Amino acid sequence: MVQQSNHARNTRLIGSKLRTLRKTHGLTLEELSARCIQIDAARAPSVSYLSMIEGGKRVPSADLLALFSSVFQREPAWFLDATQAAEAPAPAQRAGGAPPVPFEPAFLFSRELLQAAIPELLAQTGTSGRQFAHLLIRSHQEISRNDYPDLERAAEEVGERRFPLTAEDLIALCKRHGLELRWFDRPPMLARDRDTELRSMLRSFYDAPNVVYVNESLKAHPARLKFDLASHIAHKVLHGGDGLRSAHATGGQIGDSPHGPSAGLSPDDVLHAWRDFECSFFAGALLCPKVPFRRFLAREEHRIEAGEKIDLTPAVMMRRMTKVSAYPYWHFFDAYPPGYLRAVYRGNGIPLPWGNMAQVTDPCPHWAVFRMLDRDRGPDRGSQISVLREGDHFLLYVCHSRLTADMAGNPHVLSVGVDMVPALRSRTADADRLVDSIAQACLANGGEARVPDEAAIAIRAAAKVLNIGWIPEALENPARIICPRSTNCPRHEPCAGAGHSRAREITELQREIVFGAGCGRGGG
Protein backbone atom coordinates (compact mmCIF):
# COMPACT_ATOMS: atom_id res chain seq x y z
CA MET A 1 0.00 0.00 0.00
CA VAL A 2 2.86 2.38 0.91
CA GLN A 3 4.60 1.48 -2.33
CA GLN A 4 1.46 2.30 -4.33
CA SER A 5 1.15 5.64 -2.51
CA ASN A 6 4.76 6.56 -3.34
CA HIS A 7 4.22 5.50 -6.94
CA ALA A 8 1.16 7.76 -7.25
CA ARG A 9 3.04 10.64 -5.59
CA ASN A 10 5.97 10.27 -8.00
CA THR A 11 3.57 10.14 -10.95
CA ARG A 12 1.92 13.39 -9.93
CA LEU A 13 5.27 15.02 -9.13
CA ILE A 14 6.83 14.21 -12.50
CA GLY A 15 3.72 15.31 -14.36
CA SER A 16 3.50 18.58 -12.43
CA LYS A 17 7.17 19.40 -12.95
CA LEU A 18 7.06 18.55 -16.63
CA ARG A 19 3.98 20.72 -17.19
CA THR A 20 5.52 23.66 -15.29
CA LEU A 21 8.79 23.39 -17.24
CA ARG A 22 6.98 23.18 -20.56
CA LYS A 23 4.84 26.25 -19.83
CA THR A 24 7.80 28.18 -18.39
CA HIS A 25 9.55 27.80 -21.74
CA GLY A 26 6.43 28.59 -23.77
CA LEU A 27 6.14 25.17 -25.45
CA THR A 28 2.94 23.47 -26.49
CA LEU A 29 2.55 19.70 -26.12
CA GLU A 30 3.05 19.38 -29.87
CA GLU A 31 6.28 21.37 -29.71
CA LEU A 32 7.64 19.37 -26.78
CA SER A 33 6.90 16.17 -28.68
CA ALA A 34 8.69 17.61 -31.73
CA ARG A 35 11.73 18.56 -29.62
CA CYS A 36 11.88 15.00 -28.30
CA ILE A 37 11.63 13.61 -31.84
CA GLN A 38 14.48 15.90 -32.85
CA ILE A 39 16.71 14.35 -30.18
CA ASP A 40 15.59 10.71 -30.38
CA ALA A 41 12.72 9.80 -32.68
CA ALA A 42 12.57 6.19 -31.43
CA ARG A 43 11.95 7.15 -27.78
CA ALA A 44 9.96 10.34 -28.35
CA PRO A 45 6.46 10.36 -26.80
CA SER A 46 3.30 11.27 -28.70
CA VAL A 47 1.27 14.33 -27.79
CA SER A 48 -1.42 12.21 -26.15
CA TYR A 49 1.14 10.31 -24.06
CA LEU A 50 2.73 13.57 -22.92
CA SER A 51 -0.72 14.78 -21.87
CA MET A 52 -1.23 11.62 -19.81
CA ILE A 53 2.18 12.07 -18.14
CA GLU A 54 1.38 15.65 -17.20
CA GLY A 55 -2.03 14.57 -15.91
CA GLY A 56 -0.43 11.97 -13.63
CA LYS A 57 -1.93 9.02 -15.54
CA ARG A 58 1.36 7.62 -16.83
CA VAL A 59 4.87 7.30 -15.41
CA PRO A 60 7.67 7.96 -17.92
CA SER A 61 10.32 5.28 -18.26
CA ALA A 62 13.94 5.94 -17.36
CA ASP A 63 14.72 6.41 -21.07
CA LEU A 64 11.91 8.97 -21.41
CA LEU A 65 13.07 10.84 -18.30
CA ALA A 66 16.53 11.01 -19.85
CA LEU A 67 14.96 12.49 -22.98
CA PHE A 68 13.13 15.17 -20.96
CA SER A 69 16.40 15.85 -19.16
CA SER A 70 18.11 16.49 -22.49
CA VAL A 71 15.38 18.88 -23.67
CA PHE A 72 15.31 20.93 -20.46
CA GLN A 73 18.92 20.39 -19.36
CA ARG A 74 17.99 18.88 -15.96
CA GLU A 75 19.32 15.81 -14.22
CA PRO A 76 16.81 12.89 -14.35
CA ALA A 77 16.82 12.78 -10.55
CA TRP A 78 15.51 16.36 -10.46
CA PHE A 79 12.12 15.20 -11.77
CA LEU A 80 11.80 12.86 -8.76
CA ASP A 81 13.08 15.27 -6.11
CA ALA A 82 10.15 16.81 -4.23
CA THR A 83 12.50 19.27 -2.48
CA GLN A 84 13.38 21.00 -5.79
CA ALA A 85 10.46 22.90 -7.26
CA ALA A 86 10.26 23.92 -10.88
CA GLU A 87 11.04 27.60 -11.23
CA ALA A 88 8.35 30.06 -12.14
CA PRO A 89 8.93 31.94 -15.39
CA ALA A 90 11.45 34.77 -15.15
CA PRO A 91 9.68 38.10 -14.61
CA ALA A 92 8.83 39.80 -17.87
CA GLN A 93 11.24 42.56 -18.83
CA ARG A 94 10.19 45.86 -20.32
CA ALA A 95 10.37 45.88 -24.10
CA GLY A 96 11.83 48.85 -25.96
CA GLY A 97 14.98 50.78 -25.26
CA ALA A 98 14.13 54.02 -23.47
CA PRO A 99 12.15 53.82 -20.21
CA PRO A 100 8.85 55.73 -20.15
CA VAL A 101 8.91 59.03 -18.26
CA PRO A 102 6.07 61.00 -16.64
CA PHE A 103 5.29 64.19 -18.52
CA GLU A 104 5.18 67.08 -16.07
CA PRO A 105 3.75 69.62 -15.94
CA ALA A 106 0.92 67.72 -17.57
CA PHE A 107 -0.75 70.78 -19.12
CA LEU A 108 2.27 71.24 -21.43
CA PHE A 109 1.54 67.82 -22.92
CA SER A 110 -2.06 68.48 -23.81
CA ARG A 111 -3.24 67.23 -27.21
CA GLU A 112 -3.55 70.75 -28.59
CA LEU A 113 -0.01 71.77 -27.64
CA LEU A 114 1.48 68.51 -28.94
CA GLN A 115 -0.33 68.93 -32.26
CA ALA A 116 1.37 72.31 -32.62
CA ALA A 117 4.76 71.42 -31.12
CA ILE A 118 5.51 68.12 -32.90
CA PRO A 119 5.39 69.51 -36.47
CA GLU A 120 7.56 72.43 -35.34
CA LEU A 121 10.03 70.04 -33.71
CA LEU A 122 10.26 67.95 -36.88
CA ALA A 123 10.70 71.00 -39.09
CA GLN A 124 13.49 72.44 -36.91
CA THR A 125 15.39 69.15 -36.70
CA GLY A 126 14.98 68.26 -40.37
CA THR A 127 13.05 65.11 -39.51
CA SER A 128 10.49 63.92 -42.03
CA GLY A 129 7.00 62.94 -41.04
CA ARG A 130 7.62 59.45 -42.39
CA GLN A 131 10.65 59.02 -40.13
CA PHE A 132 8.68 60.21 -37.12
CA ALA A 133 5.85 57.83 -38.00
CA HIS A 134 8.26 54.89 -38.17
CA LEU A 135 9.59 55.75 -34.71
CA LEU A 136 6.01 55.71 -33.39
CA ILE A 137 5.36 52.35 -35.06
CA ARG A 138 8.60 50.89 -33.71
CA SER A 139 7.64 51.89 -30.17
CA HIS A 140 4.20 50.36 -30.69
CA GLN A 141 5.79 47.12 -31.89
CA GLU A 142 8.16 46.93 -28.95
CA ILE A 143 5.59 47.70 -26.27
CA SER A 144 3.11 45.21 -27.76
CA ARG A 145 5.91 42.65 -28.37
CA ASN A 146 4.94 42.50 -32.04
CA ASP A 147 1.58 40.94 -31.22
CA TYR A 148 -0.94 41.69 -33.99
CA PRO A 149 -3.40 38.76 -33.97
CA ASP A 150 -5.79 40.31 -36.51
CA LEU A 151 -3.02 40.56 -39.09
CA GLU A 152 -1.86 37.02 -38.27
CA ARG A 153 -5.38 35.62 -38.79
CA ALA A 154 -5.89 37.52 -42.03
CA ALA A 155 -2.61 36.20 -43.46
CA GLU A 156 -3.32 32.63 -42.36
CA GLU A 157 -6.76 32.73 -43.98
CA VAL A 158 -5.22 33.83 -47.29
CA GLY A 159 -2.37 31.30 -47.21
CA GLU A 160 -4.30 28.54 -45.41
CA ARG A 161 -1.19 28.07 -43.23
CA ARG A 162 0.65 26.41 -46.10
CA PHE A 163 4.41 26.34 -45.59
CA PRO A 164 6.60 26.85 -47.43
CA LEU A 165 5.03 28.82 -50.27
CA THR A 166 6.86 29.00 -53.60
CA ALA A 167 7.05 31.99 -55.91
CA GLU A 168 4.53 30.21 -58.16
CA ASP A 169 2.20 29.88 -55.16
CA LEU A 170 2.40 33.65 -54.57
CA ILE A 171 1.71 34.39 -58.23
CA ALA A 172 -1.35 32.12 -58.04
CA LEU A 173 -2.54 33.92 -54.90
CA CYS A 174 -2.18 37.25 -56.69
CA LYS A 175 -4.45 35.98 -59.48
CA ARG A 176 -6.93 34.58 -56.95
CA HIS A 177 -7.26 38.02 -55.40
CA GLY A 178 -7.71 39.76 -58.72
CA LEU A 179 -4.22 41.24 -59.02
CA GLU A 180 -2.65 41.66 -62.45
CA LEU A 181 1.16 41.44 -62.59
CA ARG A 182 2.95 43.66 -65.09
CA TRP A 183 6.71 43.32 -65.44
CA PHE A 184 9.13 46.18 -66.12
CA ASP A 185 12.88 46.40 -66.59
CA ARG A 186 14.77 49.15 -64.76
CA PRO A 187 18.39 49.00 -63.50
CA PRO A 188 19.60 50.55 -60.22
CA MET A 189 19.68 54.34 -60.13
CA LEU A 190 20.66 57.21 -57.85
CA ALA A 191 17.85 58.19 -55.50
CA ARG A 192 17.68 61.03 -52.99
CA ASP A 193 17.01 60.19 -49.36
CA ARG A 194 16.91 63.37 -47.28
CA ASP A 195 20.29 65.07 -47.85
CA THR A 196 22.12 62.07 -49.32
CA GLU A 197 22.18 60.19 -52.61
CA LEU A 198 22.26 56.43 -52.70
CA ARG A 199 22.00 53.60 -55.18
CA SER A 200 18.45 52.36 -55.28
CA MET A 201 16.36 49.97 -57.32
CA LEU A 202 12.61 50.15 -57.76
CA ARG A 203 11.55 46.58 -57.05
CA SER A 204 7.76 46.80 -57.29
CA PHE A 205 4.81 49.08 -56.69
CA TYR A 206 1.04 48.94 -56.47
CA ASP A 207 -1.15 50.78 -58.97
CA ALA A 208 -4.76 51.01 -57.76
CA PRO A 209 -7.05 49.24 -57.95
CA ASN A 210 -5.54 45.90 -58.96
CA VAL A 211 -2.23 46.18 -60.86
CA VAL A 212 1.17 45.29 -59.40
CA TYR A 213 4.26 46.38 -61.34
CA VAL A 214 7.24 44.10 -60.72
CA ASN A 215 10.87 44.54 -61.75
CA GLU A 216 12.09 41.73 -64.04
CA SER A 217 15.21 41.45 -61.88
CA LEU A 218 13.14 39.85 -59.10
CA LYS A 219 12.69 36.73 -61.21
CA ALA A 220 16.31 35.88 -60.36
CA HIS A 221 15.64 36.41 -56.65
CA PRO A 222 12.63 34.26 -55.69
CA ALA A 223 12.95 35.00 -51.97
CA ARG A 224 12.68 38.75 -52.61
CA LEU A 225 9.95 38.25 -55.20
CA LYS A 226 7.89 36.25 -52.71
CA PHE A 227 8.08 39.00 -50.09
CA ASP A 228 7.10 41.76 -52.53
CA LEU A 229 4.13 39.81 -53.87
CA ALA A 230 3.01 38.85 -50.35
CA SER A 231 3.12 42.50 -49.33
CA HIS A 232 1.00 43.58 -52.31
CA ILE A 233 -1.51 40.81 -51.60
CA ALA A 234 -1.68 42.24 -48.08
CA HIS A 235 -2.56 45.66 -49.44
CA LYS A 236 -5.33 44.20 -51.57
CA VAL A 237 -6.76 42.13 -48.71
CA LEU A 238 -6.44 44.70 -45.93
CA HIS A 239 -7.21 47.91 -47.80
CA GLY A 240 -9.01 46.92 -50.98
CA GLY A 241 -6.04 47.96 -53.14
CA ASP A 242 -6.63 51.71 -52.73
CA GLY A 243 -2.96 52.40 -53.54
CA LEU A 244 -2.18 54.36 -50.36
CA ARG A 245 1.19 52.76 -49.64
CA SER A 246 4.84 53.14 -50.58
CA ALA A 247 6.67 51.55 -53.48
CA HIS A 248 9.19 48.80 -52.72
CA ALA A 249 12.68 50.18 -53.33
CA THR A 250 16.09 49.39 -51.90
CA GLY A 251 18.01 51.69 -49.57
CA GLY A 252 16.77 54.47 -47.35
CA GLN A 253 17.70 55.44 -43.81
CA ILE A 254 14.47 54.38 -42.12
CA GLY A 255 11.43 52.48 -43.31
CA ASP A 256 11.18 50.51 -46.51
CA SER A 257 12.08 52.97 -49.27
CA PRO A 258 14.01 56.18 -49.96
CA HIS A 259 11.83 59.19 -49.52
CA GLY A 260 12.05 62.90 -50.27
CA PRO A 261 14.01 65.51 -48.33
CA SER A 262 11.01 67.40 -46.94
CA ALA A 263 10.88 67.84 -43.17
CA GLY A 264 7.78 68.25 -41.06
CA LEU A 265 4.59 66.25 -40.74
CA SER A 266 1.90 65.87 -43.40
CA PRO A 267 -1.49 64.20 -42.82
CA ASP A 268 -0.58 61.18 -45.00
CA ASP A 269 2.81 60.45 -43.41
CA VAL A 270 1.57 58.34 -40.50
CA LEU A 271 -1.11 56.64 -42.60
CA HIS A 272 1.36 55.55 -45.30
CA ALA A 273 3.95 54.40 -42.75
CA TRP A 274 1.36 52.35 -40.85
CA ARG A 275 0.06 50.83 -44.10
CA ASP A 276 3.61 49.84 -45.04
CA PHE A 277 4.12 48.21 -41.64
CA GLU A 278 0.81 46.33 -41.80
CA CYS A 279 1.60 44.96 -45.26
CA SER A 280 5.13 43.97 -44.22
CA PHE A 281 3.87 42.17 -41.10
CA PHE A 282 1.13 40.44 -43.12
CA ALA A 283 3.72 39.32 -45.68
CA GLY A 284 5.86 37.75 -42.97
CA ALA A 285 2.85 35.94 -41.50
CA LEU A 286 1.77 34.73 -44.95
CA LEU A 287 5.21 33.38 -45.84
CA CYS A 288 5.91 32.06 -42.33
CA PRO A 289 2.64 31.07 -40.58
CA LYS A 290 3.27 30.85 -36.86
CA VAL A 291 2.84 27.14 -36.07
CA PRO A 292 4.62 25.55 -39.06
CA PHE A 293 7.37 28.16 -39.07
CA ARG A 294 7.99 27.65 -35.35
CA ARG A 295 8.35 23.92 -36.02
CA PHE A 296 10.75 24.69 -38.87
CA LEU A 297 12.88 26.89 -36.58
CA ALA A 298 12.93 24.10 -33.97
CA ARG A 299 14.17 21.58 -36.54
CA GLU A 300 16.81 23.99 -37.83
CA GLU A 301 17.85 25.35 -34.40
CA HIS A 302 16.97 28.90 -35.48
CA ARG A 303 19.75 29.00 -38.07
CA ILE A 304 19.34 31.86 -40.51
CA GLU A 305 20.91 29.84 -43.32
CA ALA A 306 17.93 27.46 -43.20
CA GLY A 307 15.89 30.08 -45.05
CA GLU A 308 17.95 29.42 -48.17
CA LYS A 309 16.35 25.97 -48.43
CA ILE A 310 12.87 27.44 -48.87
CA ASP A 311 13.61 30.82 -50.48
CA LEU A 312 13.19 33.08 -47.46
CA THR A 313 15.42 36.14 -47.18
CA PRO A 314 17.60 36.51 -44.06
CA ALA A 315 15.58 39.61 -43.14
CA VAL A 316 12.29 37.69 -43.20
CA MET A 317 13.85 34.84 -41.18
CA MET A 318 15.22 37.20 -38.55
CA ARG A 319 12.17 39.44 -38.25
CA ARG A 320 9.72 36.55 -38.11
CA MET A 321 11.62 34.50 -35.54
CA THR A 322 11.48 37.42 -33.09
CA LYS A 323 7.68 37.06 -33.29
CA VAL A 324 7.04 33.31 -33.37
CA SER A 325 9.70 32.20 -30.85
CA ALA A 326 8.47 31.07 -27.45
CA TYR A 327 11.29 33.17 -25.99
CA PRO A 328 10.25 36.87 -26.06
CA TYR A 329 13.58 38.65 -25.47
CA TRP A 330 14.82 39.35 -29.01
CA HIS A 331 16.22 42.29 -30.95
CA PHE A 332 16.73 42.88 -34.68
CA PHE A 333 18.77 45.51 -36.55
CA ASP A 334 19.09 46.28 -40.26
CA ALA A 335 22.07 48.64 -40.49
CA TYR A 336 23.40 50.58 -43.49
CA PRO A 337 26.76 52.37 -43.58
CA PRO A 338 28.02 54.67 -42.29
CA GLY A 339 25.62 54.01 -39.43
CA TYR A 340 21.90 54.17 -40.12
CA LEU A 341 19.34 51.77 -38.74
CA ARG A 342 16.82 51.10 -41.49
CA ALA A 343 14.79 48.75 -39.28
CA VAL A 344 14.80 48.07 -35.54
CA TYR A 345 12.95 45.84 -33.12
CA ARG A 346 13.81 45.69 -29.41
CA GLY A 347 11.61 43.22 -27.59
CA ASN A 348 14.46 42.82 -25.10
CA GLY A 349 15.03 46.54 -24.47
CA ILE A 350 18.62 46.65 -25.76
CA PRO A 351 19.89 50.25 -26.09
CA LEU A 352 20.52 51.52 -29.60
CA PRO A 353 24.17 51.88 -30.72
CA TRP A 354 23.12 54.82 -32.91
CA GLY A 355 19.99 56.56 -34.10
CA ASN A 356 17.68 56.30 -37.09
CA MET A 357 18.03 59.82 -38.43
CA ALA A 358 21.71 60.64 -37.89
CA GLN A 359 24.95 58.83 -37.18
CA VAL A 360 26.22 59.48 -33.66
CA THR A 361 29.61 61.11 -33.23
CA ASP A 362 30.93 58.55 -30.73
CA PRO A 363 29.77 55.08 -31.82
CA CYS A 364 31.09 52.04 -29.96
CA PRO A 365 33.13 50.08 -32.53
CA HIS A 366 32.63 46.73 -30.79
CA TRP A 367 28.99 46.11 -31.76
CA ALA A 368 28.82 43.29 -34.31
CA VAL A 369 26.91 45.49 -36.77
CA PHE A 370 29.62 48.18 -36.65
CA ARG A 371 32.47 45.73 -37.07
CA MET A 372 30.83 44.12 -40.08
CA LEU A 373 29.95 47.44 -41.71
CA ASP A 374 33.60 48.50 -41.44
CA ARG A 375 35.01 45.17 -42.61
CA ASP A 376 36.76 45.11 -45.99
CA ARG A 377 37.30 41.37 -45.97
CA GLY A 378 36.72 38.37 -43.76
CA PRO A 379 33.67 36.28 -42.84
CA ASP A 380 30.32 37.67 -43.92
CA ARG A 381 28.52 36.19 -40.92
CA GLY A 382 29.20 35.35 -37.31
CA SER A 383 27.93 35.20 -33.74
CA GLN A 384 29.01 37.37 -30.82
CA ILE A 385 28.54 37.42 -27.05
CA SER A 386 28.34 40.98 -25.77
CA VAL A 387 28.38 42.43 -22.26
CA LEU A 388 26.74 45.83 -21.83
CA ARG A 389 26.78 47.86 -18.62
CA GLU A 390 23.50 49.35 -17.47
CA GLY A 391 23.84 51.38 -14.27
CA ASP A 392 25.71 49.28 -11.73
CA HIS A 393 25.16 45.89 -13.34
CA PHE A 394 25.85 44.12 -16.64
CA LEU A 395 23.57 42.71 -19.32
CA LEU A 396 24.41 39.79 -21.60
CA TYR A 397 23.39 39.54 -25.26
CA VAL A 398 24.16 37.01 -27.99
CA CYS A 399 23.61 37.97 -31.63
CA HIS A 400 24.06 36.49 -35.07
CA SER A 401 24.93 38.96 -37.83
CA ARG A 402 25.23 38.76 -41.60
CA LEU A 403 26.82 41.17 -44.05
CA THR A 404 24.76 41.19 -47.22
CA ALA A 405 23.81 43.47 -50.11
CA ASP A 406 20.47 44.77 -51.32
CA MET A 407 19.36 44.56 -54.96
CA ALA A 408 21.13 47.82 -55.80
CA GLY A 409 24.41 46.46 -54.43
CA ASN A 410 24.45 48.52 -51.21
CA PRO A 411 26.10 46.62 -48.33
CA HIS A 412 24.19 46.34 -45.07
CA VAL A 413 24.24 44.20 -41.95
CA LEU A 414 21.33 42.20 -40.58
CA SER A 415 21.62 41.23 -36.94
CA VAL A 416 19.29 39.25 -34.67
CA GLY A 417 19.97 38.59 -31.02
CA VAL A 418 18.63 37.57 -27.63
CA ASP A 419 19.01 38.78 -24.06
CA MET A 420 20.51 35.78 -22.24
CA VAL A 421 19.83 36.97 -18.69
CA PRO A 422 16.17 35.81 -18.48
CA ALA A 423 17.16 32.40 -19.90
CA LEU A 424 19.92 32.05 -17.31
CA ARG A 425 17.66 33.22 -14.48
CA SER A 426 15.09 30.57 -15.35
CA ARG A 427 17.76 27.95 -14.64
CA THR A 428 19.90 29.32 -11.82
CA ALA A 429 19.89 31.88 -9.04
CA ASP A 430 23.51 32.68 -9.94
CA ALA A 431 22.69 34.30 -13.29
CA ASP A 432 23.83 37.79 -12.28
CA ARG A 433 27.06 36.43 -10.79
CA LEU A 434 27.81 34.50 -14.01
CA VAL A 435 27.23 37.57 -16.15
CA ASP A 436 29.45 39.61 -13.85
CA SER A 437 32.20 36.99 -14.16
CA ILE A 438 32.14 37.41 -17.96
CA ALA A 439 32.26 41.21 -17.61
CA GLN A 440 35.18 41.09 -15.17
CA ALA A 441 37.12 38.73 -17.42
CA CYS A 442 36.64 41.16 -20.33
CA LEU A 443 37.57 44.21 -18.24
CA ALA A 444 40.74 42.49 -17.05
CA ASN A 445 41.77 41.65 -20.62
CA GLY A 446 41.41 44.92 -22.48
CA GLY A 447 37.69 44.60 -23.19
CA GLU A 448 37.36 41.09 -24.59
CA ALA A 449 38.00 37.60 -23.23
CA ARG A 450 36.95 33.99 -23.45
CA VAL A 451 33.84 33.25 -21.41
CA PRO A 452 34.80 31.60 -18.09
CA ASP A 453 34.08 27.86 -17.97
CA GLU A 454 31.25 27.99 -15.42
CA ALA A 455 29.42 30.69 -17.35
CA ALA A 456 30.03 28.90 -20.66
CA ILE A 457 28.47 25.71 -19.31
CA ALA A 458 25.41 27.64 -18.15
CA ILE A 459 25.08 29.44 -21.52
CA ARG A 460 25.33 26.17 -23.45
CA ALA A 461 22.63 24.61 -21.28
CA ALA A 462 20.35 27.63 -21.74
CA ALA A 463 20.99 27.57 -25.50
CA LYS A 464 20.04 23.90 -25.57
CA VAL A 465 16.71 24.68 -23.93
CA LEU A 466 16.12 27.67 -26.23
CA ASN A 467 17.18 25.47 -29.17
CA ILE A 468 19.23 28.27 -30.77
CA GLY A 469 22.26 26.79 -32.51
CA TRP A 470 24.26 29.99 -33.03
CA ILE A 471 24.54 30.71 -29.28
CA PRO A 472 27.08 27.89 -28.63
CA GLU A 473 28.93 28.98 -31.78
CA ALA A 474 29.36 32.45 -30.25
CA LEU A 475 31.23 30.84 -27.35
CA GLU A 476 34.00 29.96 -29.79
CA ASN A 477 34.84 33.68 -30.01
CA PRO A 478 35.83 36.10 -27.23
CA ALA A 479 33.03 37.96 -25.47
CA ARG A 480 33.21 41.74 -25.91
CA ILE A 481 32.35 44.76 -23.82
CA ILE A 482 29.97 47.02 -25.76
CA CYS A 483 28.29 50.29 -24.79
CA PRO A 484 25.67 52.57 -26.37
CA ARG A 485 28.24 55.38 -26.71
CA SER A 486 32.03 55.26 -26.69
CA THR A 487 32.27 58.24 -24.33
CA ASN A 488 30.66 56.01 -21.67
CA CYS A 489 33.06 53.14 -22.29
CA PRO A 490 33.41 51.03 -19.10
CA ARG A 491 36.80 49.59 -20.08
CA HIS A 492 39.75 50.43 -17.84
CA GLU A 493 41.44 51.86 -20.92
CA PRO A 494 38.67 53.23 -23.19
CA CYS A 495 38.65 51.90 -26.74
CA ALA A 496 40.07 53.93 -29.61
CA GLY A 497 36.69 55.35 -30.54
CA ALA A 498 36.00 56.73 -27.08
CA GLY A 499 38.50 59.55 -26.80
CA HIS A 500 38.94 61.65 -23.69
CA SER A 501 36.98 64.67 -22.59
CA ARG A 502 37.57 67.43 -20.04
CA ALA A 503 33.88 68.27 -20.00
CA ARG A 504 32.19 68.37 -16.59
CA GLU A 505 28.61 68.25 -15.46
CA ILE A 506 27.10 71.36 -13.87
CA THR A 507 25.56 69.13 -11.18
CA GLU A 508 29.08 67.98 -10.25
CA LEU A 509 30.11 71.59 -9.79
CA GLN A 510 27.04 72.20 -7.65
CA ARG A 511 28.00 69.34 -5.35
CA GLU A 512 31.52 70.71 -5.01
CA ILE A 513 30.15 74.11 -3.99
CA VAL A 514 27.66 72.70 -1.48
CA PHE A 515 29.76 69.92 0.02
CA GLY A 516 33.34 70.84 -0.94
CA ALA A 517 36.03 71.52 1.62
CA GLY A 518 36.77 75.14 2.43
CA CYS A 519 33.44 76.42 1.20
CA GLY A 520 32.74 79.60 3.15
CA ARG A 521 29.36 80.03 4.78
CA GLY A 522 27.64 82.93 6.38
CA GLY A 523 27.35 86.55 5.30
CA GLY A 524 29.27 89.71 6.01
From TrEMBL:
It comes from the Bacteria. Residues 18-79 form the HTH cro/C1-type domain. It holds the Pfam family DUF3612. InterPro entries: Cro/C1-type_HTH (IPR001387), DUF3612 (IPR022055), Lambda_DNA-bd_dom_sf (IPR010982). Transmembrane segments: none annotated. This is DUF3612 domain-containing protein. It comes from Ramlibacter alkalitolerans.
